[in-house]
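Justification of resources, computational component.

The compute hours requested in this renewal are based largely on the per-chain cost of generating structure records like the one below. Each record pairs the submitted sequence with a full structure-token output. That output is archived, and it is also reused by downstream analysis tasks.
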Amino acid sequence: MKILFIGDIVGKPGREILQERLARLRTELGVDVVVANGENAAAGSGITGTIAKSLLAIGIDVITLGDHVWDQRGWEDEIDDFPMVCRPANLPESNPGRDHVIVNVKGFRLAVCTFLGRTFMGMKAECPFLGADAMLAKLSGQADGVFVEIHAEATSEKIALGWHLDGRVIAVLGTHTHVPTADASVLPKGTGFMCDVGMTGPYASVLGREVAPVLGRFIDGMPRRFEVAEGDVRISGALVEYDEVAKRATNVTLITVRRAGGR
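The structure output for this chain reads:
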């Protein structure tokens, strides 16, 4: 089984390159299921029902979210209408939305869930380590394998969760910091790991935003509007290859796709 995990989709540029290239990419890589983080899909912060529909329509099977989950007004009233969208599982239970998604991949019941890190993160969330343990217990008998996203700032926290879940889940892949890391691997007990799969959006930027206002904010501290940038748009993600018989990942590969002409 091949799982393509697409990193944080940033604004219109990220959505457009997926619309242009995702179908072909699925075919070229022989992908069985596509999971994508959509928490920055609406103007760089949050997601809307209209955008969620458009992403699912172009071939994304499951949409995950992160700390910007509630940034767009009204999404809290729409999220329950999307069975293939899940918010972070370690948010308080009173939050709307699903804490996991199960998708059938050629008879294989694949569960997908996301956990927020707590180090350097401002959003109220429970412990991702204990939350992951509880989720695995909850999914026992309901899923044949579990794919975990860790949406976190600290690399140490992401790496620690990978070791914590090694041999118990298909993969632990990171998002949130928008910069792809050079540590794609399969851990000793068979869990695929990567600290951050990068963002899908404009790389001629500061994490997807126009350079000038971000620089200005760093220099003088004055507030500015950070518009989504437009240059050097790429798809960034990871391809996880999983052996269902051996019950272990066999390979994790960084996937980078640039727009023709570097736009």
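The chain has a mean pLDDT of 97. The CA atoms of residues 213 and 224 lie 6 Å apart.
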